[in-house]
Amino acid sequence: MQVFCCFLLLINLTLWQQSNNPPFKIAITAGSPTIVAESDVWIKVSLTNNTNHDLDDSGSYVSGIDLDPNLRFEVRDERGKLVPKRTYPRPELRPGYPVNRTIAPGQTFTLEQRVGALYDMRKPGKYSIQVSRSISDNPKDDIKSNIVTVTVTAKGKSSGDRSAKGRDMTR
């Protein structure tokens, strides 16, 4: 009986550890904490594989927007309201391109993301950004990043302008 109880305890401990150890971690940083109005807003997204097997990070990107399709971005203004997505004419005609990527166990992959391409942060104000990625069909299982705040200033008040294209920042 004692062996059986130890066996059950071991199984429960294993399940508990699995549920508290997410398969990956997402960390974000602002490319620049202060941006001039109407400039692009960039963040660096680092995805770390915490498992003992490869993590598939492939997807189909939309040209011109170029955000990782596996990630969801939540952008809020200083009042906590969700920032609307930008609209583009005839989005169904935008070409896409596949990206095949695997993140090895323990590896961190970092990619700059131009959040301003999809979310309207062209007006002065403070914006909070959080990134998430799902691990199942249940939204409660999503893994979320830390939150960063970006301040957009009126033109002529700061020089935090970024105009370079996004690039892989693999480590």
The amount of helix comes to 10-25%
Element-by-element helix/strand order: HEEEEEEEEEEE
Largest sheet: 4 strands, mixed
Lateral strand order in the biggest sheet:
2-11-10-6
CATH class: Mainly Beta
Low-pLDDT windows of residues: 3-18, 158-171
Distance between the termini: 50 Å
CATH architecture: Sandwich
Mean pLDDT: 81
**Helix/strand/pairing category:** mainly beta
Q: Taking Cα atoms only, what radius of gyration do you get, to the nearest Å?
A: 20 Å
Total domain modules: 1
The CATH topology is what? Immunoglobulin-like
Write structural notes for this entry.
- This protein has one domain (22-153): Immunoglobulin-like (Sandwich).
- Helices cover 11% and strands 36% of the residues.
- The chain contains one helix and eleven strands.
- It has one helix at residues 2-20, and strands spanning 24-30, 34-36, 42-49, 55-56, 59-62, 72-76, 96-99, 102-103, 108-114, 125-133, 143-153.
- Strands 2-11-10-6 form a four-stranded mixed beta sheet, with no helix packed on it. It has a three-stranded antiparallel beta sheet with strand order 1-3-9, with no helix packed on it.
Report a brief summary of the structure.
With 171 residues, the protein is mostly beta strands.
What are the main properties of this structure?
single chain, 171 residues, mainly beta, Immunoglobulin-like, 4-stranded mixed sheet, 3-stranded antiparallel sheet, 1 helix, globular
